[in-house]
Amino acid sequence: MIEVAPMPDELTAGHLGRLGWLNGCLNENDLTVMIKDAVVKLGFDPESMPRLRQLALLSNMDGHDYARKHSMLASFRVAAKAGKNFDHGAETSAAYSKRLGMLPQRGGAYCCPQCIAEDLKDWGFSWYRRNHHLVGIDWCVVHDSKLSLVDHRNAFSRVPHLWQMENKLIPLTVVVEHLPQNGFLRRFAEISTMLLARERPFLADRINGALAKQAAALELRLSRTGRRPLISDRLSTQVAAPWLCAHLPSWHEKQPSEYFQRIDALATMKTLPGVGEAYAMAMASLYDTTETAMEDVCAAETGQQRTPSKHRRVSRGATFWNGEFWPYYLKCHGQINVIAERLQLDADHVGEVLAALGLPSLHNHEQSKRWAAFIRFCSGESLSAACIAEQVNQSEVEVLLRKCSARVMLAIRKIKNDPPIAQKRSPSGLGERILSPRARHEDNHRASEVRRETDDQRLHSERQTTDPTRHLGNRRFCAK
Ligand SMILES: [Zn+2]
User: What's the 404 CA to ligand 1 centre distance in angstroms?
Assistant: First the structure.
């Protein structure tokens, strides 16, 4: 048998299909026999062994590791009852591996034409990714463009580019052409992707409790009857109805103020787990940012409580942040805690708004080599030379450059009381842009990231919003 190593984020069903395809198996039965023989040769009994575990063995991978990287168990089992929250792919959860280990969360085989083009260029072949098979995410989270469905009964038997050559890819009908940079759908995509990376389910009582608390804080109703709106009512105002109808069974029957079991029960059930994608929807609905949502449910899991801020999360509006705020940033030396104290605002909130404005915390920047390289680069040195001079990893500085608007360098100079010098470079090419486009980044600046970005215009428009979810982007999830 030809060994077939799984590709990054490759879906189990796709990996199985590729194994059969590369070994010339004529049908499913052929493939099963081949796998069983190979498992026996490795000294294991294939009978009653989940297919997931068989594939892990044939990939020389630990079962748990293979499940975490290639199955969608983490999306199916976001939460579990106490005593049942076994690691995904563990021996103790073999029943789940058997039932769900080879299934995509979303029925069908999906792919992204841009991913196919990149795979062909980089690898010479393409594969099916898990993050294209998450319920509700109709877009590639790397390229933000809509996915296509393979129009074939046995889609995983062939790799995506072969179907593309046969014109068997049908673009999805979507509520928006591209995954929005902020708002509910972006948070939902990010949260779903983060949940997929988890090693084990949350304890149902803990995550349900965290959602109930957050819903109560938003003055939503937790009971079946009453006047106040429910989580499902909030959800209905955040995303287009066709999306909800497509991804929530029976949503078309939902009436305002009427209890919708799949969503509202998450905050009212004490110990029972809900459906995986419903958790991601409720989290994206109840929290302003992906980070707060994940922090809150993770803190509940460990029994810690997020320290409630002594300040209210009342913002000052876009006019303040885009104008009047600037002197505060300078006077407080870009230190978020100091700014928050001065403005009597929640520090987390200030951090989120500043991130959206491209103004990160400058706390201790004088001592940081990363910042030193950043300053060198903004003063005209090539990125590689700046990184060598400061002995810092280029990728770390690239991360910083992506976070910063051009005003950051201006602030650093003002804080240092430097007289302004002729500005040669503008970080990220944003805001007060001076740099010509990518062509001038001859030193492979952001080389690994450039292909992930559609164009400078999109980046520019990203910076125009103060939505705190914007800064998360999609790149954090595509890094391998
Ligand atoms: Zn893609």
Answer: 26
Please determine, for residue 422, whether its predicted confidence score (pLDDT) is greater than 60.
no
Q: Taking 90 as the threshold, does the pLDDT of residue 420 lie above it?
A: no
pLDDT at residue number 311:
53
What span, in angstroms and rounded, lies between the C-alpha atoms of 77 and 148? Answer: 26
Rounded to the nearest whole angstrom, what is the distance from the C-alpha of residue 171 to the centroid of ligand 1?
Answer: 13
pTM of the model: 0.65
Write down how long the chain is. 480
Angle at 449 between CA 298 and CA 374, to 5 degrees: 85
Torsion of CA 116, 121, 122, 128, to 10 degrees: 10
Task: Give mean pLDDT, residues 277-284.
Answer: 97
340 with 332: CB under 8 angstroms? no
Whether the predicted pLDDT of 96 surpasses 70:
yes
Q: Where are the beta strands (DSSP E) in 40-99?
A: 79-80
- Check residue 188 and report its DSSP letter: H
> Two tokens at 121?
């260029």
Residues 119 and 127: beta-carbon distance below 8 Å: yes
CB atoms within 10 A of CB 39: 19
Ligand 1 midpoint to CA 452 (Å): 9
Task: Give yes or no for a contact between 473 and 189, defined as CB atoms under 8 angstroms apart.
Answer: no
Helix (H, G, I), strand (E, B) or coil at 330: helix
Q: What is the largest CA-CA distance in the chain?
A: 76
Centre of ligand 1 from the C-alpha of residue 125, in Å: 14
Residue 22, CA atoms < 13 Å, CB-side half-sphere: 17
Distance 140 CA to ligand 1 centre (A): 5
Q: Which residues contact 137 (CB under 8 A, 6 or more apart)?
A: 131, 147, 179, 188, 189, 192
Ligand 1 centroid to residue 103 C-alpha, Å: 21
- Residue 171: strand, helix, or coil: strand
360 C-alpha to ligand 1 centroid (Å): 29
Residue 97 CB burial class (10 angstroms; 0-12, 13-18, ≥19): buried
Residue-level pLDDT at 444: 35
User: Could you count the other beta carbons within 10 Å of the beta carbon of residue 10?
Assistant: 20
